[in-house]
From TrEMBL:
Protein name (database record): Methyltransferase domain-containing protein
Molecular-function GO terms, alphabetical: protein-lysine N-methyltransferase activity
GO biological-process terms attached to the record: methylation
Keyword Repressor: no
Amino acid sequence: MEPAKLDIPFVPSTAEKIRIMVKMANLQGGERMADLGSGDGRVVIAFAKAGAIAQGFEADPSRAMLGQKNIIVQGMEDVARISEKNFWKADLSEFNIITLFGITSMMKQMEKKLKKELKTGAKVISNTFIFPEWEPVQVENNVYLYVKN
Ligand SMILES: C[S@@+](CC[C@H](N)C(=O)[O-])C[C@H]1O[C@@H](n2cnc3c(N)ncnc32)[C@H](O)[C@@H]1O
């Protein structure tokens, strides 16, 4: 089997960035969120603990496994899950909240995918990287909140 093609290296979000991401989501409970490139699962776990039904997509098999293990260690497996999957191939239409910590080179293509697939009112929260055309509605400490209209 070919090794997974990764668009972004693994760099974990800091606890402070995750705190801001969760705050920006303004969760009411039961929202469906997906983290695109979920690494060790820390963002997925934080959102699940804050009340979301959380899903990670991770292309690196060993990180996907680690993320799922971390979910189980935290006892969050009823509301959080990591799928070993390339996020470009994931159907994002069912999610109310998308989080990502990407890289500049992917943001144009990702803007297109998100605008095509997400429903009106869906939130996208990006750690550090901005979309080329989409205007954020909120910015804090290099975390950007976008809303699909
Ligand atoms: C910058 S890290 C962010 C990890 C986590 N979201 C966080 O904020 O702590 C990006 C992750 O995306 C994964 N990744 C890269 N390209 C991917 C792709 N095409 N599909 C799914 N995951 C991918 C990498 O393996 C890495 O774990």
